[in-house]
Amino acid sequence: MTFLRASCLSVCVAMACTLDAIDFTGKTCEDAQDCPPPYVCVAARPGEGRTCEVLGLPGAPDGGDAGPVPTWCGDIQPIMAASCVSSCHGADTSSSGVTSFRLDYFAPEDGGVPGAQAMAARIQARAYVFQDMPPPGSPVPMPTAQERERIARWAREGAPLCADAGSEEVPCDGGVGGGL
What is the pTM assigned to this prediction? Predict the structure, then answer.
């Protein structure tokens, strides 16, 4: 009988540990109490209502980020150039047909279509949260996990332009006005 109790206790302890590791990402929720920490009840998935999601908080880096905040000029623009711009979200949109924004520049000149600055939250959602951009099977290089985290941190920290954002004379596009 003692052996049976010890076995049952072991099974119950093992199950409790397993229950604590449940992934609540995408679980339907109504308010904050429906999602355990570190999840937040938000409307982040189009057409799915409110769901539990892990989101970074402004000023609070996720995953032990250290060092300077990523910037468009030094960190994000090269990722966008390699994985997003070639034939989808730049001057050439033949592979996506999306012309409502562009990721080959930070901000539009003369009120043109929005650039990466205006799209930072969407970039974070698609590249980091859902990881569905670039689309699986796309011929462009997929961002690494570290690059995806860098994109998310850049967006969470306000999508800064350059390390010296106070200077408007810092060219980020290689000297080509508005593009790569």
Answer: 0.59
